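Worked example 2:
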Amino acid sequence: QVQLVESGGGLVQPGGSLRLSCAASGFTLEHHPIGWFRQAPGKEREGVSCIGPSDQHTVIADSVKGRFTISRDSAKNTVYLQISHLQPEDTAAYYCAALIVGRSWYGPFDEKSYDYWGQGTQVTVSS
């Protein structure tokens, strides 16, 4: 059974850092594109990062470039999103997603590119 489970969210002060995890089961992460998205209250879901299969090509959205880093630990079948210099506008539910079965690619930050999603982890940035 395919499953993605995010963890690592929490309450953090502005300027702090977090590392979010996306643990996969039922499939091998390194064979599939994995994206990170976030959704703030009242806003649309926004793609922030993606890591490709095999060669680990990574893409970071311009809006978070320089503060967000995506990586993969194949031995743990887990993808990470490292977030530094957190700002209140980073407050959102963060989701990871995988393209496993589908054959259509709409780009790394388009939700339609992915067919499996985790349940999300909440990040709140506040003093």
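The two ends are 40 Å apart (CA to CA). The chain has a mean pLDDT of 95.
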